[in-house]
Amino acid sequence: MPLLKDTTLGIDFGTSNSAMAVRQGAGLARMIALEGSAHTLPTALFFNAEDHRTHFGRDAVGQYLAGTEGRLMRSLKSLLGSALLQDKTAVHNKMVSYQDIISLFLRMLVQKARDELGGMPARVVMGRPVHFVDGDADRDQQAEDALRQAALDAGFAEVSFQLEPIAAALDYEQRIAHESLVLVVDIGGGTSDFTVVRLGPERMARAERGSDVLATTGVHVGGTDFDRRLSLDLLMPLLGFRHTGPTGREVPSRVFFDLSTWHLIQWLYSPRALRDAQNLRTDYSDARLHARLMRVLHERLGHRMANTVEQAKIAASLADAEAPMPLDWIEAGLGAAVTPEGLAQFLLQPLEQVVACAQECVQLAGLGVQGLDAIYLTGGSSALRPLRQALKAAFPDTPQVEGDLFGGVAAGLAVSGR
């Protein structure tokens, strides 16, 4: 296929969702449809054990929820910077590393780009969080190197990186009429990233924009952490979390934390993990709770529980009303619910970390609370009502502007490649 010399492809490979945008010449960035007409794609793969096909995105999640025999994998980005990335697992009767599985997902994106553009773009810019790994520069660099290698293995000839909040800022800049000091808030599935940046129509044409970026910060807390907190507080007690056994001690909790963490769920289905869970039986006073746990693990229902939590979180926030979490597919009548008040309460601690990181970014930029013209929100988890309320409390007089929550980073990455 031909090399498209004046074309930049922006790839937002996200923990929960991914998107791509393309910019040709001096034109505007446009999104690329990834699944039907949808411009975003859940970062999910399903390895179908019945026909040995690999499914992606909504199709992958749908196959899993329909009960098709196979394995679902989500939140693979969370493994970058971890030793688990090089661990191998059986996929379609082959042993492959989790980095290889990331490459497989990116290879699908390569094909989507080729089909859309009729060739390979000369420039590929991938987004990255401010920190893949908090407080460890070496592991952070290893994470970027691993993602670059996965992209090269997928078929891209050359890859550069841009910080995701800066990409979001460049996308927002396309739509403002006057110079502004903006705090970009990018709350994704795995990380929360911030940048204070000076934006404006007259600045867009500058080749060097480094002086416009006043500060960047990030913390490894995002939407999947919110899901984990809700799961531990509302669903895992139904399987024995915090249950007191016959010796007066609580059931060991590691299995519940792993079962509430998207990218760790698949490890609980191994023979060793199943044996360890079965051996917990003597730690339970209530055999029914242990039976529920073992059913979830034997029937590989962990991702279904995680999906139930995620959907209830979104519903409670958007509707500002109680959202049910039915688990009747585990046991008749089993379930829980989350209220808007409960959502704010359960997410209080992680949201405090997120807001503190935003405040640090503003302080590093040398600004006070009154120094900002706007807060620009992007990333799917920035839609959560408790998050917006927490930011409003911290920055009471700063207007919040909602961007393209799922496509803004990809569009900004395409613009940044000029």
TrEMBL record:
Transmembrane segments: none
Top-level taxon: Bacteria
Annotated Pfam families: HSP70
InterPro entries, A to Z: ATPase_NBD, Heat_shock_70_CS, Hsp_70_fam, YegD-like
Annotated protein name in UniProt: Hsp70 family protein
Coiled-coil stretches: none
Keywords: ATP-binding, Nucleotide-binding
Source organism of the structure: Acidovorax facilis
The family this protein is said to belong to: Belongs to the heat shock protein 70 family.
